[in-house]
Amino acid sequence: MAEYDSIASGYSDSKQLAFRDHVERHTLFRTLGDVGGARVLDLACGDGFYTRLLKQAGASSVTGVDVSAEMIRLAEESERRSPLGCSYVRSDAADFRPSEPVDLVVAAYLLNYARTREELVGLCRVCRDSLRPAGRFVGLNDNPRVPPAGSVSYLKYGFERRCDRFPPREGDPIRYMFPTADGSSIEFANYYHSPATYQAAFRDAGFRDFRWAPVSLDPAQAGDSFWDDFMRSPPIIAFSAEP
Ligand SMILES: C[S@@+](CC[C@H](N)C(=O)[O-])C[C@H]1O[C@@H](n2cnc3c(N)ncnc32)[C@H](O)[C@@H]1O
Using omega within 30 degrees of 0 as the cis cutoff, is the peptide bond preceding 148 cis? Predict the structure, then answer.
């Protein structure tokens, strides 16, 4: 059973939090630019949240891949309820190969599940090998540039982020906790790797260009001091890479 099988619906509910829209989605699509006509692979697609948005943004095809059967069930349920033409595969991303190269690989919170540098290079290599030569790899990640010092409350945004050691060492768990509507919570762990380790992993996987894309706030929210703490210590970051 994959880690997300037991928290799938709680995680799905968390996609309704305001930061998901005004910071996360805004940053990802700003980093992506125009996806019109692109053949897209969405690795670690979860319940298909971004798979569907990518298709709605004009991608010609989008295939979502996730290791959690329950996440894929939720994604397929959305597709059945309101068909967009997205397709889904349950697989570990590390073992997945598309039948033909794609224009764009998207991975929102996949790389931060690599427990070791070798796993990180392996995941980057899958992304590299899935792309046509002029393709792009764009994603979201736990932010290794701003590791949590102890337990950091982002509760006004809907979650907490914690690491038992500061500064963290390679492979240390970064624990997230999201309170849920029924008074309980969902928890999951990402794994820390330094920015230099990411840089080297992309290089070793065959990406010649890799850059971080710091989060940006939806201009519709500009001037709202509610976002100041989040933007001062952003727990998440985007990136973009080209072979
Ligand atoms: C934080 S969720 C993100 C889901 C989705 N990308 C989103 O942004 O809503 C992380 C997802 O990664 C999946 N995952 C973790 N490791 C994976 C792997 N090795 N291969 C495929 N999926 C993986 C989990 O099952 C989970 O659905």
Answer: no
Region label for 44, one of left (φ > 0), alpha (ψ between -120 and 50) or beta (otherwise): left
Are 174 and 161 spatial neighbours (Cβ–Cβ below 8 Å)? Answer: yes
Q: Is 2 in the pocket of ligand 1 (CB under 6 A)?
A: yes
CATH topology of domain 3-143+193-242: Rossmann fold (3.40.50)
Evaluate: CB of 202 within 6 angstroms of ligand 1: no
Average pLDDT, the chain: 97
Backbone angles phi, psi at 106, to 5 degrees: -115, 135
The residue type of 156 is: K
**For the chain, domain boundaries:** 3-143+193-242
The pTM (predicted TM-score) of the whole model is: 0.97
**Confidence bin at 119 (pLDDT 50/70/90):** very high
Please check whether residue 230 is in contact with residue 154, taking contact to mean a CB–CB distance below 8 angstroms.
Answer: yes
176 lines ligand 1 (CB under 6 A): no
Q: Nearest CA to 178 among 2, 7, 1? A: 7
